[in-house]
């Protein structure tokens, strides 16, 4: 791609640490751009337009799309300090199998049960996307993600301790639009604005 083709706020595919992922261009930085890796939510630096492969067209455009949950584990496995650590649990688990340590296995169902109970309690609170849909349904007009998050916080529909809740919700909304298409709850209208689909 050429530098003149790159627009702030648009999402492109780019190769980041040997994986092709969608990235949103946030601002001009030096000779390149500050961008957000849509798969991980992390801020990255795009040095030149040559790193961008083209506009993001949905999951089919990115081979690694839908594997966001696997990324942190992959990074731990490939990081220099984690190589030894990743082998140690395997050795421990094989030692436990050899000695027939049932205590650990017995402890797992109780943890799962505890998580299930906690999950039931947390299920009452809407997710960030649910809150965004509720805000858009009430306002019935296109809004930026920052406006949506502000209203959701004010009305206590959702809360987040994250440093960039707007970027988190933006990424989630973009992923839902890309994954579900016409079935998505959201529709992007104009630059950085969303409304309810239908």
List the helices and strands and how they pair.
Blueprint: E1 11-16, E2 19-29, E3 32-37, E4 43-46, E5 52-55, H1 71-78, H2 82-99, H3 102-122, H4 128-139, E6 143-144, H5 145-154, H6 165-180, E7 186-188, E8 193-196
Antiparallel strand pairs: 1-2, 1-5, 2-3, 3-4, 6-8, 7-8
Helix pairs in contact: 4-5, 5-6
Output the helix-strand order. Answer: EEEEEHHHHEHHEE
User: What radius of gyration results from the CA coordinates?
Assistant: 21 Å
Unreliable stretches covering 5 or more consecutive residues: 65-79, 81-86
CATH domain fold name of the largest domain? SH3 type barrels
Label the structural class. Answer: alpha+beta
What this model shows, in words?
- 43% of the residues lie in helices and 20% in strands.
- The chain has 198 residues and is α+β, with helices and mostly antiparallel strands.
- The chain has two domains: 1-86, SH3 type barrels (Roll); 128-196.
- The strands form two sheets. The protein has a five-stranded antiparallel sheet, with no helix packed on it. It has a three-stranded antiparallel sheet with strand order 6-8-7.
- A hairpin with a 2-residue loop joins strand 2 (19-29) and strand 3 (32-37).
- The longest helix has 21 residues, at 102-122.
- It starts with 10 loop residues before the first strand and ends with a strand.
In short:
The protein has six helices and eight strands. Strands 4-3-2-1-5 form a five-stranded antiparallel sheet, with no helix packed on it. Strands 6-8-7 form a three-stranded antiparallel sheet. The protein is 43% helix and 20% strand.
């Amino acid at each position: 791609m050429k530098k003149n083709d790159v627009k702030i706020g648009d999402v492109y595919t780019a190769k980041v640490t040997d994986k092709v992922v969608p990235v949103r261009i946030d601002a001009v930085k030096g000779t390149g751009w500050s961008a957000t890796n849509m798969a991980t939510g992390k801020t990255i630096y795009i040095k030149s337009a040559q790193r961008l492969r083209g506009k993001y067209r949905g999951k089919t455009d990115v081979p690694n799309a839908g594997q966001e949950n696997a990324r942190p584990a992959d990074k731990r496995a490939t990081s220099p300090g984690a190589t030894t650590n990743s082998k140690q649990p395997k050795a421990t688990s094989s030692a436990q199998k050899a000695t027939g340590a049932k205590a650990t296995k017995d402890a797992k169902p109780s943890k799962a049960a505890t998580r299930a109970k906690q999950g039931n309690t947390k299920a009452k609170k809407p997710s960030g996307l649910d809150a965004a849909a509720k805000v858009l349904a009430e306002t019935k007009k296109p809004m930026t993600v920052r406006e949506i998050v502000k209203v959701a916080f004010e009305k206590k529909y959702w809360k987040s301790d994250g440093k960039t809740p707007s970027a988190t919700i933006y990424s989630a909304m973009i992923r839902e639009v890309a994954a579900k298409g016409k079935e998505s709850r959201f529709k992007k209208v104009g630059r950085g604005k969303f409304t309810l689909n239908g």
